[in-house]
Amino acid sequence: MAKLLMRALAGETLPTPPIWMMRQAGRYLPEYRATRAEAGDFLSLCYNSDLAAEVTLQPIRRFGFDAAILFADILLLPQALGADLWFVTGEGPRLSTIEGEADFAKLGGHDDIHDHLAPIYETIRILSRELPEETALIGFAGAPWTVATYMIAGRGTKDQGPAHALKSENRALFVQLIDLLTEATIEYLSKQIEAGAETVKIFDSWAGSLKGQDFDDFALKPAKRIISALKARHPDVPIIAFPREAGDRYIGFAKATGADCVALDNSITAEWAAKYVQVDGCVQGNLAPGHMVTGGQALVDDAQAITRALRGGPHIFNLGHGITPDSDPDNVAKMIDAVRSA
Ligand code: CP3
How far apart are CA 19 and CA 316, in angstroms? Predict the structure, then answer.
């Protein structure tokens, strides 16, 4: 019998949805914090294949999720392309910025990324051997727009202002950067699939800040290009797209891009998603991550309401965004029980 996650991705309506959680390997788990300390820091953990595989497995052992997601980060690809990358504790990522042609010219081509990313492919090979046979393995990359927002600003930003500014002030350069990231992402995800990823997810965390034609040009079109190139090489590998906070633009996103599943953030209701998004195929989501901090009956009620609202079609249960470090692991177990008994 095929793995539950793969069945949902193939479009099957299941009595109980497969469950996994964004950032399921993370700081809310004491065993993660211990392994991270052993590695030294976050980036050293990402590039240490044995320890990255270990933290990927930790939430599987503890909770029995239906899927594991490769432990890595969307910013490793810009680093492979030649950007400087470091993490400031308590603040987040920092990168060299892209302000003009000279900064862009310092980046290498997408042919040269694989030596740098070899430890990530090795993590996947280890996981393919070590995961329980019922657990699916998810690879991932950032979407070009989201990765570009960090590369241009050199850090996370509230409104993606620097990226929007470059887009309007030097559109030719901005388009070159999006194109480079699109081609590099195809090669990166393709190698993840060859190493053993059974599905891949494209994280467009800042898709919601693209409006109108910009959404078509820089969220939808790059996703379509990546998905069609991957489908040409790996026709049987399903693809999950996460255009976070796309709002109305979730409607038709799967059809327009060829994605097998659309992941939903928690700003939309499950009822709305059932009516307008799940009609086209599998959806993933979308419990508010805050419940993992606050717990209680509200957690159980919301988890079960989402499960029931999306029971009429293919559904993968997840949070609407990553679990936060202040979450209580007991609430994760409570969520899983609630979904499986809904
Ligand atoms: O979901 C998973 O568990 C898989 C691993 C994963 C991480 N980051 C590990 C991580 C994935 C899929 C990501 C994606 C990612 N990384 C995104 C897109 C998804 C999203 O959350 O919107 C983005 C925007 C990033 C960039 C990034 N990485 C930021 C902004 C930060 C700092 C924020 C924070 O929580 O500290 C990171 C660090 C990061 N990536 C951590 C983890 C577990 C925390 C690092 C630590 O241990 O200190």
Answer: 6
Do 111 and 248 sit in the same domain of this protein?
Answer: yes
> Would the CB of 69 count as within 6 Å of ligand 1?
yes
Contact (Cβ atoms closer than 8 angstroms) between residue 240 and residue 230: no
In sequence order, what DSSP letters do the residues of 273-333 get, joined into one string?
HHHHTGGGSEEEEEE-TTHHHH-HHHHHHHHHHHHHHTTTS-EEEEESSPPPTT--HHHHH
In a domain, 36, yes or no: no
Q: Domain with 193 in it: what CATH number?
A: 3.20.20.210
Each residue's pLDDT expressed in tens, for the chain with a length of 342 residues: 799 999 999 999 999 999 999 999 999 999 999 999 999 999 999 999 999 999 999 999 999 999 999 999 999 999 999 999 999 988 999 999 999 999 999 998 888 899 999 999 999 999 999 999 999 999 999 999 999 999 999 999 999 999 999 999 999 999 999 999 999 999 999 999 999 999 999 999 999 999 999 999 999 999 999 999 999 999 999 999 999 999 999 999 999 999 999 999 999 999 999 999 999 999 999 999 999 999 999 999 999 999 999 999 999 999 999 999 999 999 999 999 999 999
Domain hosting 128: range is 71-263
Pair (227, 336) in one structural domain: no
Say yes or no: CB of residue 51 within 6 Å of ligand 1: no
What atom of ligand 1 comes closest to residue 205's alpha carbon? 22
For the question of residue 73 being annotated catalytic, the response is yes
Question: Residue 24: CB within 6 Å of ligand 1?
Answer: yes
What spacing in Å lies between the alpha carbon of 126 and ligand 1's midpoint?
Answer: 21
pTM over 0.85: yes
